[in-house]
Design a protein that fits this description.
alpha/beta, 708 residues, 49% helix, globular, six-stranded parallel sheet
Length: 708
């Protein structure tokens, strides 16, 4: 490939980075400035220019998804044999290869989770932490190991770092020491020990160091602000005394200091390598000028060492809508208000997959899940578990692989139907179940089924139908690159989980003091990390940005909470009187219709009564409603909860509304659902067959149920 052609389409700063082919190079890349484009074109340019061969390049990033994206871009640029891996994947490959000659014997079992071993270690030292306590202890052990702190030094190191320990530091150290004993006794290898062993192997065995350094001569490290001391140790082992190292990162997106990451490797790169080439990418191609102004304001208020490190972004896109700042009376009203705004966006044509609700903590998610379900908006919750590592997906892939060849001599069934039948064994029903965990499992399996349907609709180049073998090959490719199938629906994610992603519309919610910054951010450094986390959230938005908060936690509660300090200078001084009055009308106090107590729980507010207050409803009516919902969900190809949740159906059955006005008073029946389903529901309540139900669908099923 012509080296100059590789540079076509790059802006001046990206071109400067791509032309810096030798020696240490530091690319400071702001959010949305095309850093992946810059580094992949730089690698391809180096290969095309003969500076380095493809096999001698090692590009390191932090997620398998990012590594897969990088490999895909390099293939398109004519450099398909470049190795793009995570730190852990690269280390595991090298350690496995050299294990027989360096250590010998049975290879250890690599564990992805420490929880079981940490729980056992805690019991060995006489402690019995709950599940949350075990997670906190595991987090402390990970922090200690990546920062190269030994159990005997943990208490001093934790005090020096100002870490709030889950138990007295001495007890954490005892658990840490016991954990290492459990790990060695059972021949277990965690990710941190894997990196440490790989670095030690290279540093202690000159022959191995020579082989590794002959193999890899050209290094690129993405997200360098997230590197921790242990990863730096391994990188230095790979490099030896060479300096062909390109690092890419953004100090303003340093949000993992609590886990041991340190941005100083990035910010002090030019100090360590005085002859380094430093390039700043500041042209923001992702967000509108309105969003960029918010981002620059937020990070421009940074204090401490980051005050002089941040990049000022320059928007490249046309103008978009102004950001919105919305105050709601309380948290339930905020969730409801956000869901209603999303419903309007969907009706106006915004795809659900281009909308995200970003929360500070996972505990905030449930309220937004319920509110979106009430509005009939499909959603998916983005967690920390990678898609192909979820238990139900591992089971599904195992079953699908077993079925790839089919029965000899038999005519194969259509792919989509076969996949749905096989996944039905694992719980893929026609409609999604209630409950967060059950729904997440269902959504995962449903994503696989939709992938099969999409593949089946696009015949192969030879004109033949897509087979199960084709589908399994596609899954294997996606597993290798961590390319999860697309989920249909609005994304709910924590701010940490949202890093590296982007959407047309972003709702940043719960922006109050104590939540943003989080209440346990006590030092100046911790508060500044919260500012950077907020900055990451802002820069996820391409076109629309909506920020909201609520002074009260519960309906009727005291309005003592203040908006986040990070909104100072951005939001209006106070919401208008009309806006307050409107939100009060939307979220007024709801009282139990039986005992008149104020209802704060979401399920109680939906039912209109306390959960322990007596209730009576027509079982036949509830059955009719459920069967009607099932039919509608099938027709619209959406989960049943998108039509109405079980709690809403029960509330309708209890209250038996006879008019649209009465139905609109049932929690969970918004304007959109009233327009779409109101007449049908009223008909069901009255005992008549609604006009939008197919002939014999509801009534016959109800009659069959009654005769059983």
């Amino acid at each position: 490939m012509d080296p100059d052609r590789v540079l076509e389409g790059l802006d001046p700063e990206q071109t400067q980075a791509a032309r810096a082919l030798r020696g240490p190079v530091c690319i400071l890349a702001g959010a949305g400035t095309g850093k992946t484009r810059a580094i992949t074109h730089r690698i391809a340019h180096a290969v095309a220019s003969g500076v380095v061969s493809e096999q001698q390049v090692l590009a390191v990033t932090f997620t398998t998804r990012a590594a897969g994206e990088m490999r895909g871009r390099l293939r398109a640029l004519g450099a398909p044999r470049v190795q793009a891996r995570t730190f852990h994947a690269a280390a595991l490959r090298q350690l496995s290869f050299f294990w027989p000659q360096v250590i010998g014997g049975e290879k250890p079992t690599l564990i992805e989770s420490k929880l079981q071993a940490v729980s056992r270690a805690a019991h060995l030292v006489g402690l019995q932490p709950d599940r949350s306590g075990v997670r906190d202890l595991a987090g402390e052990i990970e922090w200690a190991k990546v920062t190269q702190v030994r159990p005997t030094d943990y208490d001093k190191a934790a005090a020096k770092a100002g870490r709030p320990t889950p138990l007295p530091a001495g007890e954490v150290a005892r658990v840490f020491e016991a954990y290492e004993e459990v790990r060695r006794e059972h021949n277990l290898l965690d990710f941190e020990s894997m990196l440490e062993l790989t670095a030690g192997m290279i540093n202690e065995y000159p022959a191995i160091a020579q082989r590794v350094r002959d193999q890899y001569r050209y290094f690129v490290v993405d997200e360098f602000q997230d590197v921790n001391p242990l990863q730096r140790l391994l990188l230095d082992a790979w490099l030896g005394d060479r300096d062909d190292l390109c690092v890419v990162g953004d100090p303003s997106q340093t949000i993992y200091s609590f886990a041991g990451a340190t941005p100083t490797y990035l910010t002090e790169f030019a100090t360590r390598y005085p002859h380094a080439t430093v390039v700043e990418l500041v042209r923001d191609y992702r967000s509108t000028p309105q969003v960029v102004r918010v981002a620059n304001h937020v990070i421009g208020q940074a204090r401490g060492s980051f005050a002089a490190e941040h990049l000022t972004l320059q928007a490249q896109r046309p103008d978009g809508p102004d950001p919105m700042y919305v105050e709601y009376d309380d948290e339930p009203a905020e969730a409801t208000g956000v869901a209603r705004k999303i419903s309007v966006l969907l009706r106006e044509g915004t795809p659900a997959g281009e909308i995200a609700v970003l929360v500070r903590t996972n505990a905030q998610s449930a309220a937004y899940e319920q509110a979106l379900a009430d509005e009939g908006v499909p959603f998916t919750v983005r967690g920390s578990a990678r898609f192909f590592e979820r238990p139900e997906i591992k089971q599904a892939v195992h079953i699908l692989r077993g079925a790839r060849h089919g029965a000899a001599g038999e005519e194969p069934e259509p792919l989509a139907r076969t996949v749905r039948q096989l996944l039905g064994r694992l719980g893929l029903t026609e409609s999604a179940p209630e409950g967060r965990q059950a729904r997440e499992r269902w959504e995962s399996l449903s994503a696989l089924a939709r992938l099969a349907e999409n593949m089946a609709e696009a015949p192969r180049p030879d004109g033949l139908a897509v087979t199960m073998a084709d589908f399994v090959d596609e899954l294997d490719m996606r597993m290798a690159t961590e390319h999860a199938p697309d989920f249909e629906g609005v994304t709910i994610a924590s701010l940490h989980a949202a890093k590296g992603l982007e959407w047309d519309v972003v709702f940043l919610v719960g922006l109050t003091e104590g939540m943003m910054p989080i209440i346990y951010a006590e030092t100046d450094e911790q508060v500044e990390e919260e500012r950077r986390l907020f900055y990451v959230g802002v820069t996820r938005a391409r076109e629309r940005l909506v920020m909201s908060w609520s002074p009260a936690r519960s309906p009727g509660g005291r309005k003592t909470r203040r908006p986040s300090r990070f909104l100072d200078g951005l939001r209006p001084a106070s919401p208008s009187t009309a806006s307050r009055r409107t939100e009060r009308r939307k979220s007024g106090v709801i009282r139990c219709r039986v005992c008149s107590s104020t209802l704060t729980d979401a399920a109680e507010r939906k039912l209109g009564r306390c959960l322990d207050c007596p209730s009576s409803y027509d079982e036949a009516l509830l059955q009719r409603l459920r069967e009607w919902r099932r039919v509608k969900a099938q027709e619209q190809k959406v989960p049943a909860y998108v039509i109405f949740t079980d709690a809403t159906l029960q509330a309708i059955a209890e209250q038996e509304p006879t008019s649209l006005t009465q139905l609109s008073g049932v929690s969970g029946v918004g304007a959109a659902k009233l327009d779409r389903y109101g007449e049908a529901v009223i008909a069901l309540v009255s005992g008549a067959r609604p006009a939008d139900v197919g002939e014999g669908s509801v009534e016959e099923n109800v009659e069959e149920t009654a005769h059983e």
